[in-house]
Design brief:
InterPro entries: ArpA-like, CprB_TetR_C, Homeodomain-like_sf, HTH-type_TetR-like_transc_reg, HTH_TetR, Tet_transcr_reg_TetR-rel_C_sf. This is TetR/AcrR family transcriptional regulator. Keywords: DNA-binding, Transcription, Transcription regulation. One of its GO terms (molecular function) is transcription cis-regulatory region binding. The chain has 228 residues and is an all-alpha fold. The chain folds into two domains: 57 residues, Orthogonal Bundle (Arc Repressor Mutant, subunit A), CATH 1.10.10.60; 120 residues, Tetracycline Repressor, domain 2 (Orthogonal Bundle), CATH 1.10.357. The chain is built from nine helices and no strands. The radius of gyration is 21 Å and the shape is elongated.
């Protein structure tokens, strides 16, 4: 029993170290030696649990998938979607498994089928939430929920990339919130987004009026009527 518990702890340590290695270095630059060093184990111990670097990467991706929802459930499914998205955005900055998962999906080192599994899992979850929100009357009947779900997942990758390129700018959560604020009004029923925490701060830059807020911030959301 003690030996079994030690083996479980060792595997978890290797998995955590692998996530850090892939998040920081990417798949191609990551090495089994680097993972073993981070985990504080021998390479023999690593190979006992994971025969190759690819197996470590696959396990990190599976760990990401198996974590399931990061927020919820909530009675209002549009609120649950928003909270999940913003919680995931925060994890993209703070959680090695999530950062590694996104990076492994975007890079070319793994087989396409392996990289595609987390993407399908995440888009499927958001599509399910959008369908549930439609059943509650909060999403327009004509909305293509699968397409909106794909756009939401794409927001994470884009926000993470921009935050790396412009580190002195806004964080990932702010950028994802901004993307949702512009995207969801094209899918949501009138009034459905009120109170969901997507409001921006006061406008800044040339021509901004001190103390003024945008229509979204004041709760006066204007929804298009052409199904866009």
């Amino acid at each position: 029993m003690v030996q079994q518990e030690r083996a479980v702890r060792t595997r978890r340590s290797i998995l955590a170290a692998g996530a850090q290695e892939f998040a920081e270095r990417g798949y191609e630059a990551a090495t089994c030696a680097g993972i073993a060093e981070r985990a504080g184990v021998t390479r023999g111990a690593l190979y006992f649990h994971f025969p190759s670097k690819r197996d470590v990467a696959a396990a990190v991706l599976q760990e990401w998938i198996d974590r399931g929802p990061v927020a919820g459930p909530f009675p209002c499914k549009l609120e649950e979607l928003t909270r999940r998205a913003l919680a995931t955005a925060r994890l993209l900055e703070d959680d090695a498994v999530v950062r590694a998962g996104f990076r492994l999906c975007l890079e070319q080192g793994l087989e396409t089928a392996e990289r595609k599994r987390p993407y399908l899992a995440w888009t499927g979850r958001y599509a399910e939430l959008l369908e549930a929100a439609r059943a509650q009357g909060d999403v327009r009947a004509e909305t293509a929920t699968d397409e909106i779900a794909e756009l939401i997942v794409g927001c994470f990758a884009g926000a993470r990339l921009v935050s790396q390129l412009v580190p002195e700018g806004d964080d990932v959560e702010h950028r994802v919130r901004s993307a949702l604020r512009h995207l969801l009004p094209h899918a949501a029923a009138p009034g459905a987004l009120d109170g969901l925490g997507l409001t921006p701060g006061p406008p800044t830059g040339p021509g901004a009026t001190p103390g003024a807020t945008s229509g979204v911030a004041s709760g006066a959301l204007h929804f298009p009527t052409d199904g866009m």
